[in-house]
Amino acid sequence: MGIPRQVLYRLYWQGELIRTGPGLYSPLTIEPTEHHTAVEVATAIPKAVICLLSALQFYDLTTQIPNSVWVAIDRKARKPRTSLPVTVFRFSGAALTEGIDRRPVEGVVLRIYNPAKTVADCFKYRNKIGTDVAIEALSDCLKRRKATRDEIWHYARLCRVANVIRPYMEAI
Question: What is the C-alpha separation between 60 and 54, in angstroms, rounded?
């Protein structure tokens, strides 16, 4: 927000702010939501995009609960230095820049992949998260009408998993 460090320290010592992490402060009036850790990560790593299991949890498309916030950064970017629980994935080109939604949570705008892109990413990283999680995400996404088949197909081609996802889309 552009507030000088000295002012933040003064407000913290006066009891008007609470320290939520290194370099992160929030007013006492804000009630943390279930996405509070994602908000902290989005503040600490502004160019990161929330992806995979964290995005599925945000959209309520999975029963899995990740123990860290899963984020995507550019393939050539430095690994972020933060004490927050973060799992970093490297994306490049259109796979990094397309399908980003901006959602306001706790006064911070979260950059998060939309449900269709998240489902395609789950099939791309099915060896890390499990094929069953990817199938569950695809099924829930279509049942709850979070995305259409055409949107999922567009992102599947973008992520180069169209041949992988085709049999599952035909079966559902």
Answer: 10
